[in-house]
């Protein structure tokens, strides 16, 4: 009998548990009502008097061993629960946290806004779904004007007065309708044209429109403003205003910057000329001022429009406009900026 109890003591001392359930099973087996210990206590009265002392001691040892084990494992399990708890192991290394990056179009747009805001231009916006008046007619492009074909337009089939704006020049009109000179504003935004998608053109892209209306605004002001911009944006200090035609400006010009011919890429993107076109500009046509309720005998103004994708492609050396809209994270992750 005593040997049997000693076996139980050894078993109790060697016992290990990883869960509460295992521990409870152990407790019931040794300390439960019908457990090993109670059986041995029940045996006690049958033990011969001369063995009672030794028997009593061994049973007590078994009791201490079993109780000690239960307490020890219980404490260990509870302290594990404290750190594991509802949140898991709080000492484990954190989940890696990936920070997003701004889209290159947003970065370039913000740079342009920054440059113009230092010379007093504010930012204005207009709707992408426009009406005929703001996109065409008010800009000196009446119905049947051939220049409407310069920009392939997405119309709403059931209502030809509703269209997706083809340029941000529509915001000029809205701004002049609502504000009196002096006006100095730039209008960034998305524009839409029904064009085949290729490496160089897309049916959705971004423009930035600029407008300055005040007394005595001259072509020289336009030229200096654009020169300041190209210096700040590209670090280039030579521009050329090439005579052109836009219905909403008179005279009109294309803005070329001298990019240089240092590298093979310079040759490729400037087609060997060194010059790059970045937008259009001109003196606001008096008809446009009149259409927007501004006295064309008192005020003059200049306007310009530039493609944001084109500028971003130049800044970052991107050869295909479609990359901006594919949203491939391997492409987007390369752009980091503080603005
Ligand atoms: N709206 C023209 C376009 O999308 C760009 C433009 C040219 C805007 C001349 C202007 C301007 O304000 O004066 O092609």
Automatic annotation (TrEMBL):
Quaternary assembly: Tetramer of two alpha and two beta subunits.
Biological process annotations from GO: phenylalanyl-tRNA aminoacylation
Stored HAMAP family: Phe_tRNA_synth_alpha1 (MF_00281)
Catalytic activity, EC: 6.1.1.20
Subcellular location: Cytoplasm
Record's protein name: Phenylalanine--tRNA ligase alpha subunit
InterPro entries associated with the record: aa-tRNA-synth_II, aa-tRNA-synth_II/BPL/LPL, Phe-tRNA-synth_IIc_asu, Phe-tRNA_ligase_II_N, Phe_tRNA_ligase_alpha1_bac, Phenylalanyl-tRNA_Synthase, tRNA-bd_arm
Family affiliation: Belongs to the class-II aminoacyl-tRNA synthetase family. Phe-tRNA synthetase alpha subunit type 1 subfamily.
Keywords, ordered alphabetically: Aminoacyl-tRNA synthetase, ATP-binding, Cytoplasm, Ligase, Magnesium, Metal-binding, Nucleotide-binding, Protein biosynthesis
Enzymatic reactions: tRNA(Phe) + L-phenylalanine + ATP = L-phenylalanyl-tRNA(Phe) + AMP + diphosphate + H(+)
């Amino acid at each position: 009998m005593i040997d049997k109890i000693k076996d139980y003591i050894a078993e109790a001392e060697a016992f290990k548990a990883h869960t509460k359930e295992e521990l409870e099973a152990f407790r019931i087996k040794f300390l439960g009502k019908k457990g090993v210990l109670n059986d041995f206590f029940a045996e006690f009265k049958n033990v011969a008097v001369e063995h009672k002392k030794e028997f009593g001691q061994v049973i007590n040892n078994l009791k201490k061993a079993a109780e000690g084990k239960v307490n020890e494992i219980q404490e260990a399990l509870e302290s594990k629960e404290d750190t594991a708890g509802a949140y898991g192991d709080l000492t484990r290394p954190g989940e890696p946290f990936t920070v997003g990056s701004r889209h290159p179009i947003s970065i370039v747009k913000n740079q342009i806004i920054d440059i113009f805001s230092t010379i007093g231009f504010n930012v204005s916006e207009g709707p992408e779904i426009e009406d005929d008046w703001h996109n065409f007619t008010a800009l000196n492009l009446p119905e049947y004007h051939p220049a409407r074909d310069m920009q392939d337009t997405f119309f709403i089939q059931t209502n030809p007065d509703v269209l997706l704006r083809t340029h941000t020049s529509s915001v000029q009109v809205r701004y002049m309708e609502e504000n009196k000179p002096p006006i100095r504003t730039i209008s960034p935004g998305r524009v839409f044209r029904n064009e085949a998608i290729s490496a160089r053109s897309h049916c959705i892209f971004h423009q930035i429109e600029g407008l300055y209306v005040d007394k005595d605004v001259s072509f020289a002001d336009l030229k200096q403003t654009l020169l300041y911009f190209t210096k700040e944006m590209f670090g280039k200090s030579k521009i050329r205003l090439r005579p052109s035609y836009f219905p909403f400006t008179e005279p009109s010009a294309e803005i070329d910057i001298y990019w240089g011919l240092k590298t093979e890429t310079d040759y490729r993107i400037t087609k060997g000329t060194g010059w790059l076109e970045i937008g259009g500009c001109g003196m606001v046509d008096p008809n446009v001022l009149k259409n927007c309720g501004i006295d064309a005998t008192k005020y003059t103004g200049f306007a310009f429009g530039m493609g944001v994708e084109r500028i971003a492609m130049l800044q970052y050396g991107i050869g295909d406009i479609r990359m901006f809209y594919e949203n491939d994270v391997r492409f987007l992750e390369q752009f980091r900026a503080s603005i």
